[in-house]
Amino acid sequence: MTDVVVVGAGPVGLTVGVALAAAGHEVVVIDKLAEGANTSRAAVVHARTLEVLDRIGVSDRLVELGVPAARFSIRDGQHELIGVPFGGLPTKYPYTLMIPQDLTERVLLERFEELGGKVRRPCEATGITQYDDHAVVTLDTGETITARYVVAADGMHSRIRDLAGLGDDTGDTLALNFSLADVRVNGGLTSEEVRLYLATRGVLVVAPLPNGSFRLVAEVEEAPENVDVTYAQRLLDLRGPRGVSVTEVIWGSRFRIHERVAASYRKGRVVLAGDSAHTHSPAGGQGMNLGLRDAITLGEALSTALATADEQPLDQYAVQARAEALDVVSLAHRLTRIATLPTTLRPARNLLLRLLGRIPAVRRGLAVRLSAVRTG
Questions:
Q1: Is the alpha carbon torsion for 251, 62, 27, 42 positive or negative?
Q2: Alpha-carbon distance 247 to 255, whole Å?
Q3: Average pLDDT of the chain?
Q4: Mind giving me the DSSP string for 103-151?
Q5: Per-residue model confidence as pLDDT tens digits over 73-120
Q6: Which CA distances in Å does 137 have to 8, 130, 165, 275?
């Protein structure tokens, strides 16, 4: 019998694995994919997340590989509406770290392997049976793994969540389409800040990445399956700054927004973390961050339960992590609705934001909310 089986070897599953391995527990991490992600996808790590990841010894390496963006700028073309500086926050990491998800996963995997861990791939969980003091996970090969606890970190369509009877949730799919692309450009952009353009033609996020490229995220009526240079250039021309020329599209994708929080994070020996527990709008870059913070808290709670048989920290995790998820989903929902107001209301919105941007308390409040840094 092993201590914990973690289903899913994305950033959240790997973080749980690292936290448990660092505490001396036996952990098996499995994933149905033959190899890890090789695309950038989630690319934002906020200050509070770096603080908690420091507990497992990966934050310094992430900072080495990423781009620290000291400001978040809400703009309308060339004009800044609200400038949000992170420099005054009470944290070791006064910035938003821009780092592609594949690099984050690589750092976590290397740390897991340093601690003696290994991800079993491809290895899909197809069934689970729970008992009073353990659970048995059935694999697609017919093999079984017996563990004291099972962590479902297998994403939005989590099979383990559903098999464990935790599939009932509250949520919805918003009728909003987004296009995403990593591009190389000439002129006009800076690596020192993340920019949110609130143009009359629509919203556009522009964020720096470590290899000199930039992430573009735009809400559109219909997102193309494949983003090319012409499409990316049109987004910048209609919504972004002047004088920027797209020279290459490195990678592109599209998605729709799902908002969901599981009704419960725990049932018996099964505990949820990351997208298996919650999904929401990418506004504010909170999704992976919330999942990574889940993972650290859950890893510590599992360690206590394994060492002392005290499950109270697990129950606290299930309640408190869900409460935080509901708060983050609400924030992301509000930010999304503000960014995607009807066209006729956008000039008035921008005027109001320009006025609010003159208030120091508003700027600091946004910095605290986005970074999730604790100030009290």
A1: negative
A2: 24
A3: 93
A4: HHHHHHHHHHHHTT--EE-S--EEEEEE-SS-EEEEETTS-EEEEEEEE
A5: 999 999 999 999 999 899 999 999 999 999 999 999 999 999 999 999
A6: 13, 9, 14, 20
